Amino acid sequence: MESGRNIGPVILLGPPGAGKGTQAKVVARRFGIPQISTGDILRDNVAHGTDLGLQAKAIMGRGELVPDNLVCDMVASRLREADCERGFILDGFPRTAAQAGWLDAFLESEVYEGKERCGAPIVISLKVDYNEVLRRLAGRRSCPTCGQIYNSNSHPAQVRGVCDKDGSELIVRKDDREDVVRERLRVYENQTRPVIDYYRSKDRLYEVDGLKEVEEVSRDIAAVIEQAAGMQKQIARS
Ligand code: AP5
Asked: What are the helix (H) ranges across 124-213?
């Protein structure tokens, strides 16, 4: 893991099951920046029965999106924490055109104010077809304690059903039921696809083939971040 270098904001986009959580953890470790997963934060709120969790629970259970204002307030408080100063990786946010517009305004007004600019977000879209997504989500198992992600088909735990890292019993996410997955994919097409178009129109989008092996996808993402962060440094100097 490296430390000290400014990476800036990294955004990982892609449909449910594309591998955002898997890859965001690798990026976080490799570049020493925090992973901010709106899905994980919301699930944690649901598990702890907070006000936000109570509002989000049924919506998430149906595979729909939690209202923008709730999610943006949640992200704002997280991004104001000290560990985000050198950069962070967002996984699962922004997910609507309104969230993307909000994030641009937030980054412009708050994160960089009075600090060395570390550039516009590096936006990476993981491309995976829907048949593969359905296959991956049917086999996904997660650790409720440390968040490690497994797949009973492609990346099983060493001992079936038990986390390699901390021995917790692995769980199946409630929204991985096939009918809910289909709704999540419909919501992705209608509400999140425009976010990809938004960043493409701003010439900020990098596309990575998410169908490759996990390690190959990690290598491709790291190369994009290195290239984009390097280019931003040159622009800042000139
Ligand atoms: P969230 O938790 O963000 O779910 P998602 O976007 O649907 O994405 P997933 O977590 O299902 O998949 P992933 O891309 O992270 O894939 P993973 O790495 O696990 O959101 C859940 C809900 O919260 C939403 O429906 C909504 O209600 C709410 N929410 C969250 N953010 C919100 C927002 N911004 N606004 C409003 N509401 C919001 O991988 C999947 C499986 O594939 C794993 O088993 C893994 O081992 C395997 N795998 C990964 N990579 C590979 C590979 N290269 N080859 C083979 N297998 C692989």
From this structure: 130-139, 178-187, 193-201
